[in-house]
Design goal:
Blueprint (H helix, E strand, L loop, with lengths): L4 E4 L3 E4 L4 E7 L6 H17 L6 H20 L10 H13 L5 E8 L3 E8 L5 H20 L11 E4 L3 H16 L4 E2 L1
Antiparallel strand pairs: 1-2, 3-5, 3-6, 4-5, 4-7
Helix pairs in contact: 1-2, 3-4
Length: 188
């Protein structure tokens, strides 16, 4: 098995060559201050009820709770939602597909109005940070140009998970397909 590299900004990011990753990233304005406050309060309440150090079970509950809470805010449609414009979503789609089969393999993705979900297989030539950076940089420059804006388009961090097994893979595919049917703008 390949070595796992763990990087941390605010969230932990696990990287391993030649593995499947599920990544979600969102527009910078998609989580308003009130949502960030609610998430902070939820986290504080959880930590107060579950003092550190945590068992594996508690860590698992924590790591399920917060992505779910963030996704609920994203699905509520906060922010500019510029990706609901087909021309903006098409730019994002082109960014994702540009290096497909060259630096990675795309299994599924969906562009939502204010966020993106991608199931990507790392082939060893690039790590997930490089891949996300390329998607975000290309799309930010071109979407900002299209909508007559400038500055930060994407939130600085992405949420990612390594796919653990076939059941996890199937759950991610099902999740992406649910997003496609509930507001996906462009998908594969």
């Amino acid at each position: 098995m390949n070595d796992i590299e763990i990087k941390r900004r605010n969230l932990p990011h696990w990287h391993r060559e030649k593995c499947l990753q599920f990544v979600t990233f969102h527009l910078a304005d998609s989580l308003p201050a009130s949502a960030r406050q609610d998430l902070s309060a939820l986290k504080a309440t959880f930590i107060k009820a579950n003092p550190l150090p945590w068992s594996d079970e508690t860590s698992t509950r924590f790591n399920r709770l917060f992505p779910l809470a963030v996704n609920n805010f994203l699905d509520a449609g906060y922010g500019s939602c510029c990706l609901k414009r087909h021309d903006c979503a098409l730019i994002m789609s082109r960014a994702i597909e540009y290096f497909d089969k060259k630096h990675y393999l795309i299994h599924r993705y969906v562009v939502m109005p204010n966020h993106v979900h991608v199931l990507v297989e790392l082939t060893g030539s690039w790590n997930l940070s490089q891949i996300c950076k390329s998607w975000k940089n290309y799309s930010a420059v071109n979407i900002n140009r299209l909508i007559g804006s400038s500055g930060q388009l994407w939130h600085h961090e992405s949420w990612d998970r390594m796919i653990r097994n076939e059941r996890h893979y199937d759950n991610v595919v099902e999740y992406i397909e649910k997003n496609i049917s509930s507001g996906g703008v462009i998908w594969k």
